Amino acid sequence: MFKKLIAASTAKSPWIYHINTGSCNGCDIELVAVLTPRYDAERFGFKLAGTPRHADIVVVSGPITSQSKARLLRTLEQVPKPFCVVSLGSCPRSGNVFKGSYSVEGPLEKYVHVDVSVAGCTPKPEAVIEGLYTAAQILKEKRKAMAGKKEVAES
Amino acid sequence: MTVFIQILLILFHVLVFPGFLFVFVCGLLLAGIDRKILARMQKRVGPPLLQPFYDFFKLMGKETIIPDAANKAVYRIAPIAGLASLVVTMNFIPVFSFSAMSFSADIIVIIYLLTIPAVALIVGGSASGSPFAGVGISREMVTMISYELPLILILLAVAKKAGGAELCFSLSGIVEWQQSTYLGIAHWSLIPAALAMLLVIPAEVGTQPFDTAEAETEICEGPLIEYSGAPLGVFKLNTAIKMFIMTSLFTCLFLGGIDTGIVALNALILFAIDAGLTILCMTFIHAVTARLKIEHLFKFYWTIVSALALISLILVWIGL
């Protein structure tokens, strides 16, 4: 019973941690716009967490510069499982207009498994909400898989 | 046999009513009402009413990371200690005429028990070994010192008013006194104390203008920064339960004269009054104010709020 309850709750209360890896701030503004009264992502339970330890969804924006790469990897290591990674905008997907620059070490897929990728420069808030909502559903599946694994290990 | 039944009764009081299960449901529901009303005030749809339950159960399912720098035992025990003391506190607070544990001086016990959750937060934060937590716990300590003085003055004023010549330090005694005369808030000398108590509640719970210790936008939730998974869930639960306990304490001190004779109905009325109080003294203030600096918070409590409580105490002492 508790396992079902936890899995259902996991999809309903995803807390977001946002990390900027050299983004132009456009996507960051759109992500914050999602939480404003106009789009109000809190009705799905989304909340901006202050620290990676509280996060369920890590949102990465920006083309991953040489300076931010180490910090990104360190942050991702600190997030408790199960968690999802969402890439926000075109930059972490392909490098966008910064592709080929000496200081860009993207795309994000080289370093971590990306669960949901929201395209656009910048993506509309509606698209961001949809991406985050999809990530929340994936989170639920991950939690179910995690609980199943524990059972196997115990038996 | 009677001893056995008595043990069962105590277990029932601690675990079900008015203990863990009761405060768990009521506390989280109050937190949900708070978030929903706040969202409506900001013209948002807001999260579902059961959102705090979802948050709690989600956190139960997350991995618990204990940092290398942490003191592992203290780090794990701190949230549980806070929860346990809150559950025991609720046993001392009468649901109008029903009181699970009642002694002649339970106000003194409550003053001590109410400090334990804050101390648990301080101890847990300092055990996590993060510099952000260090800043957070120093602020939490200052917040504690700020609201303790007015809280004790308020309790003294009510105890003197209820007891007459002798101080009445029993909460059920205070409720009986209100039932025999009229509500505590109807005595005009206690109105400043009631106002002060309304301002103490948000600081004790740690909601918006007085949440300097857990400022998530500047020090990343302070003492909670390293917590994840179940211990974090228990700390969030503690905050929600504190909401319920502090509003219940207000109800018991100033609005305690209601008695329908049925315990379940009494509990429902208590919850309804608590919800109203939560909206009045936490949601409204949260919606219209910004976070205070720690020195402003300290000054506010030791001047205005303490003065209100002191006025009440002096009025009561000279026999008005």
What gyration radius of chain A follows from the Cα positions, in whole Å?
Answer: 16 Å
Look up the CATH topology of chain A: Rossmann fold
Helix percentage of chain A: 40-55%
Shape field of chain B: globular
Task: Please tag this protein with its features.
heterodimer, A: 155 residues, alpha/beta, Rossmann fold, 43% helix, B: 320 residues, mainly alpha, 11 helices
Report on the structure:
The complex is a heterodimer of chains A (155) and B (320). Chain A has a single domain, classed as Rossmann fold, CATH 3.40.50. By secondary structure, chain A is an alpha/beta fold. A 5-stranded parallel β-sheet of chain A has the order 2-1-3-4-5. Helices cover 43% and strands 14% of the residues of chain A. Chain B is mainly α and 320 residues long. Chain B has one domain (11-317). Helix content of chain B is 69%, strand content 0%. Chain B has 11 helices and no strands. In chain B, helix 2 packs parallel to helix 10. Chain B is globular, with a radius of gyration of 19 Å. The interface between A and B is medium-sized, with 28 and 33 residues.
Short account of what is shown:
Helices cover 43% and strands 14% of the residues of chain A. By secondary structure, chain A is an alpha/beta fold. The mean pLDDT of chain A is 85.
